[in-house]
């Protein structure tokens, strides 16, 4: 497998289900754009990151051109405060290009509203910066009876990363995901779960995630012989379950990018691999934003969940758990086989011991601080344009 193939994207379709695993923003967006154009009843688009660049404009054009009766965009307030992974307190010494893109994002949202698209911002921060950690991290498209979920955000830098979205040609799945979209849009997010044969879908609201995700920790800890996880950001408590499984003789491998846009999280994974016998860290040559795990070769976990403390504590997220052998095989072909071919074992000394210790200490402190925050009174959604946040 060539590195370019890993980055460019592929598709894998389980033979027995109307599901496609689309790897790479190009493969995903080419497919999604056609579904949006074909929709007549509803087009619902949701992401944490939406920026006024080429990727964002492609989404805006598709929404404006859609003949669907209902056209909605749901964007988290994160996009009003962070551009290209950089916090924007709107100070004059921020790069002009960054400030210009932030203004372009707002203008693009204005044009969408002017074009008849309903635009809603989730979790506006308002005047309290302690509300910032409560983010709606979902990435979702519903176009009539077709739905997508996964890791792709709508910005140029996200489109450049290796990532994955899963397409469901199933009206029942689309209706469930549309109901989670409606709850978020109305400012009443909820934890919800639904089963569709061998597929479980879980929607997380950011307030009661722990109860919904506890079975996932148990699934990882109870693995019998193997766990493979791909992601840039896994941390506790999920890594604690991986460590528990490794202590019981399970072969645990985490595929993570050598160059991470959040270096502290990469250092934390080096610390985990050094601390836990049996946890193997394998480095990918380019940034991956995909999030998936295969347990015992028979269960696949995928969606927007990063398998980290923010997923556990405060993120609105979507997680799918699939037990269909054809779906597991599709993930094996599209994501995990290429990762195995390209990854190289991490050498513990690549990250000095002091940095590993620092990463673990800081993340434990961040997790403890997040556990103490209360988000009960936070406004959960506001129509664009909003006056604050």
Topology of helices and strands:
Layout: H1 3-8, E1 10-12, E2 19-23, H2 25-38, E3 42-47, H3 54-65, E4 70-76, H4 78-81, E5 82-83, E6 86-87, H5 96-114, E7 118-122, E8 140-143, E9 146-150, H6 156-160, E10 164-169, H7 171-185, E11 192-196, E12 199-205, H8 209-221, E13 226-230, H9 238-247, E14 251-257, H10 263-275, E15 279-284, E16 292-295, E17 299-303, H11 309-313, E18 316-322, H12 325-342, E19 344-345, H13 353-372, E20 381-383
Parallel strand pairs: 3-4, 4-7, 13-14, 14-15
Antiparallel strand pairs: 1-2, 2-10, 3-8, 5-6, 7-20, 8-9, 9-10, 11-12, 12-18, 13-16, 15-19, 16-17, 17-18
The assigned structural class equals alpha+beta
Low-confidence stretches: 3-8
Mean pLDDT: 92
The tally of helices reads 13
Major sheet description: 9 strands, mixed
Could you estimate the helical fraction of the residues in percent?
A: 25-40%
| CATH class term of the largest domain | Alpha Beta
Gross CATH architecture of the largest domain: 2-Layer Sandwich
The strands making up the biggest β-sheet line up spatially as 1-2-10-9-8-3-4-7-20
CATH topology name of the largest domain: Endonuclease, Chain A
Report strand %. 15-25%
Alpha-carbon Rg, integer: 20 Å
Number of strands: 20
Number of domains: 2
Q: Name the overall outline.
A: globular
For this structure, what is the CATH homologous superfamily of the largest domain?
Endonuclease Chain A
The end-to-end distance, rounded to whole angstroms, is 45 Å
